[in-house]
Design brief:
Layout: H1 2-22, E1 47-56, E2 59-64, E3 71-75, E4 77-79, H2 94-104, E5 110-114, E6 127-132, H3 139-145, E7 150-152, H4 161-174
Parallel strand pairs: 3-6
Antiparallel strand pairs: 1-2, 1-5, 2-3, 4-7, 5-6
Helix pairs in contact: 3-4
Length: about 190
């Protein structure tokens, strides 16, 4: 009788650990918008685009000047935890980062965007844009400073990499967003 009881206790423990790992990010607090971020200006002329919908924390669909087919856009220089990538589990703080981006870029929002030197698309065919919110703030800076994203240099598009790295260090030191409990930066 002792052996079946021990096996049952072990199975319950394993199921508990798996549940905790799977649902670890669900108890994380929502992203808190830090407000003002360092002003960043595009080096080249920008363009207007209208958001169609947010896919996840760092990817959205938009129409150039509000017309034409929706383009899949990957923001440059910031990376949020995964929520929709096929074959990859939802990462800690991914749902919160996606919700925050949806809050910032709801359907119909007009943004200013710009390309950086070095190419306009990534290997998946997504447009690579720097994005400014209607209030003038640089989207990537807001995400990184708030702890919704990590700085993610994407050579050769490194125009704002230094600013984003500084904002990440500040978010880590303040334990904001994915840098705090329960994720503690273990989201990628």
């Amino acid at each position: 009788m002792r052996r079946p009881a021990a096996v049952l206790v072990a199975l319950v423990a394993i199921v508990g650990v798996l549940f905790a790992v799977r649902h670890r990010g669900e108890s994380a607090p929502p992203v808190v918008d830090v407000g003002a971020v360092p002003a960043v200006v595009p080096a080249t002329g920008g363009f207007r685009a209208q958001v169609v919908r947010v896919v996840d924390g760092d990817t959205f669909l938009a129409r150039l000047d509000g017309r034409g087919p929706p383009l899949r856009v990957r923001i440059i220089g910031a990376d949020t935890p995964e929520t929709v990538k096929p074959g990859v589990a939802v990462r800690c703080y991914g749902p919160q980062a996606s919700a925050f981006t949806k809050h910032l870029l709801h359907s119909g929002t007009w943004v200013r965007a710009a390309y950086e030197d070095g190419g306009t698309t990534d290997r998946y065919g997504r447009q690579l844009w720097d994005v400014w919110l209607p209030d003038g703030r640089f989207l990537e800076a807001v995400l990184v400073a708030s702890g919704a994203a990590r700085a993610y240099p994407y050579p050769p598009q490194l125009e704002h990499a230094e600013v984003l790295a500084d904002l990440q260090r500040q978010a880590q030191a303040a334990r904001r967003g994915l840098w705090g409990a329960p994720c503690d930066g273990d989201s990628f």
